Amino acid sequence: MAQPLPPPAPAYIYSDELLKFDYGPNHPLRIWRLGLVNELIKLCGLDLPAVPVKAASLDQMCAFHDRRYLETLCEMSQGQGGDYQLAYGLGAEDNPVFPGLYDWSALLTGATMQAADLVVRQGHPVAFNISGGMHHAMAGRASGFCYVNDAAVTIKGLLAQGLRVAYIDIDAHHGDGVQWAFYDSDQVLTISLHQHPATLFPGTGSVEEMGRGAGRGYAVNLPLWPDTDDDIYIQCFEEIVPPVIEAFQPDYIVTQLGVDTFLADPLANLNLTTKGFGHCLKLMRDMAMGRWIALGGGGYHVINVARGWTLAWAIMRGQEESLPRELPWDWCDRLKLDLDERWLLDPKEKIRGRLWNRAQRDAEEIVAYLKKNLFPLLGARG
Question: Which of 65, 124, 135, 136 is catalytic?
């Protein structure tokens, strides 16, 4: 009798092709950070044969984006056009036009679509696209370093199959592009934990933003004050995210795993460590139950990006306990890291910034507000 085939393993989507592009020497988004993640995953013994990346087509990206916007993106990335670049958010300091910009966006979007296919059609319990998570892009406009919203494009494809999707975004910046894409829908639940909009781009994501029309109650926002640490973040996540996921009962969960929440990120002011990040990732793994499409996102301290997404991949594989506490020393030497930067898993001491008391108080008020005003809309148990 033939032996049954083993279940599909977690899938990791990556190609060095992604490293051929560059936002420019002074831009905070360093595409080469993806190569660091890939190196560290291998050094920690976590590598599987990576699934090669296939670019999304124009028609596929038009599931969410305006065709003329994408055509302009293509023209400008080839050194043509430009009449409407400012109207499309292109050419500004945040969203520079660089050679191959359209190809870069098509590759990372295709990788997210592949992640969905691997989970939905091929039965992999999780698929991780570290290049994805461009959550600020709007249907007809670039925003916040993002040109094509790979998450929104992919979720549109899942909706076309009659599936319900929960989107969880733990980037320091509000997942505005994905929220607004589905703000009227009761088939997509968007959840975003982010730094307070009064203190950080894009200035949206207040707790009162809950959806509109049929989508009322299906947008969940937890704006967190600067100096939010692991304890505050974990408490907010545990009290809100599992109950609303349980009430919504999604077919699949898409997560954006930005690590600009980490202490020392140059563009944000939250104080997470690998403890808080890892705790929330384990909860996501438990909630997804083999229906998990995972994306990268923000992160502008490149070593934190490598550490955070290596930890994320270990958790997806159920191998987090095997990770060393320290980064490989030869890798650190090559990158010229100081002694206090050589941790893979952060030390356990608590960090209490000067705004911690306000962060704690505000977080408690936000959790109470959501339980009172949003939970009844979803039938969530408080």
Answer: 136
